[in-house]
Amino acid sequence: MNVVCYSYFISEASVYNKPDRNAKRYLQFCQFLPMLVRAHHSIYPGWKLIIYHDNRVMELPYMKALNALHDADLINLRFMGVCDSICGSSGMLARLNPAFEDINVEYLACRDIDSIPTPRERCCVEEFIASGKAVSTIHDNAAHAGLMGVTLAVKAKRFKEIA
User: Fold this and answer.
1) Which of 122, 114, 135, 132 has the alpha carbon at shortest distance from 47?
2) Cβ atoms within 10 A of the Cβ of 79, count?
3) Which of 2, 45, 77, 117 has a CA that sits 20 to 30 A from residue 34's CA?
4) pTM for the structure as a whole
5) Taking a C-beta distance cutoff of 8 angstroms, is the pair 39, 116 a contact?
6) Closest by alpha carbon to 95, among 16, 149, 42, 142?
7) pLDDT per residue over 63-118, tens digit each?
8) Is the C-alpha dihedral spanning 89, 92, 94, 97 positive or negative?
9) Whole-number Å distance between alpha carbons of 113 and 155
10) What angle do CA 118, 37, 3 make, to 5 degrees?
């Protein structure tokens, strides 16, 4: 099984959730979710879509639709508790959980919740799979550095061995 995984959470440490954001506070990522789900099924047919989420997003506008998609088995929602930090185990790092929790996961791609899957990205992931390597990153934004704010793809079994 192959998986594309996202984390959907609210962190006061995020620039998007600062008090001066007024009416848009906490809603930055809601606008991407309808496109993300549709694009996933087009760009990654046959790949499971998992969204880890914290308790704070459960009241946001699109969560009702996400729950309906979950009930229809079109996505998989997984509760991860209260967000402890942006990159922590109940933040962006939660996107790696399927590589460690499910022995049936062969490949895992992790994305930011505001990144809509594209054919170009899928080609990069396929190139990574063909390479036989354990880890791949796609840095598609100059503001992203390291491994968390990018497209990260791993061969789950090999990644667990080296992590």
Assistant:
1) 122
2) 10
3) 2
4) 0.86
5) yes
6) 149
7) 899 999 999 999 999 998 877 766 666 677 888 889 998 899 999 999 888 888 99
8) negative
9) 21
10) 75
